[in-house]
Specification:
Length: about 290
Amino acid sequence: MTARISCHGVTIHLGGQLIVSDVAIDVAPGGWVSIVGPNGAGKTTLLRAVAGLVAYDGTIAVGGDSMTALSARARARVVAVVPQDPIVPYGLKVLDYVLLGRTSHIGRFGVEGVRDLAVARDVLQQLELSPLAQRRIETLSGGERQRTVLARALAQEAPVLLLDEPTTALDIGHQQEVLDLVDELRRDRGLTVLSTMHDLTLAAQYAESLVLLDRGVVVTSGSPDDVLTEDNLSRYYGARVRVVRDEGTIVIVPLRSSVEANELHRHGVVLDDVHPDVNAEARSGRNR
């Protein structure tokens, strides 16, 4: 089953402050959209609204159903969430935690059945967590815990997956493994994915389109090529970067200031091959 995410006129106030203003986002069934933007832009708050965890004005529908009209149990059948800072019960074993993702599929007074265990164990295997199934969660590393939280979400078998900074605690190898798995499941199962991501290079490589949020407002959206321009990153992030495009891949390269470049040159470090424009600035400053 696939599901479309439709957000129109979404406005969110928290503590009397306007956090998100008149946002519209549409994620096609089986698509992947990533919300990007500087710290404090409202990305996580917007994602929580889509999950039905934050009150909002406007409309949010998943699979044609308004999120405000669904019970918590019904929402869990259509939307799975991987929060950035999950609350993990102390003393719980990994397998038992992942089985919590099956709660919406089990009767009110029922217990896990054969299928529930099979789904949980399959997800653990996909995320290379099977050897840790009987470990207590507090004994895991940050990366292992993050993958365990993702496993619980995938065990819900919901058609929509919401990812809030899913790679924050992961090393580069596990970042790739987790995002590759999400993309594979998206294609195989028709998952619809809406994520927030700080790493713009990863966002560009995995998401089909991006929404750039700044101070709660969508300032631009479209393909990674359209959104991740040096002008946009300078204007909204205050960042000095080079956007490198090579065979369909986008890489965001931070640039050092001319003062720092001068210091590097003073110590014999050459930047020509990486940042020729910065190197030119350094040479200019040194020759004055």
